[in-house]
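Worked example 2:
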Amino acid sequence: MVSMVVGIPTWDPAVFAAVALLLGAVGLFAAYVPSIRATRVDPVDALRG
């Protein structure tokens, strides 16, 4: 796999930071969408099923 990435060192801190930020952003977005839907539901209706 190293041969597929040209010009980037094996242990590049910028790449690790970029991947961490990207995964964090995807995780936050994945949690944000259901949380917005959950805030729009009446708690009593949600408990009744």
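The chain is about 65% helix and 0% strand. Residues 12-48 form one domain.
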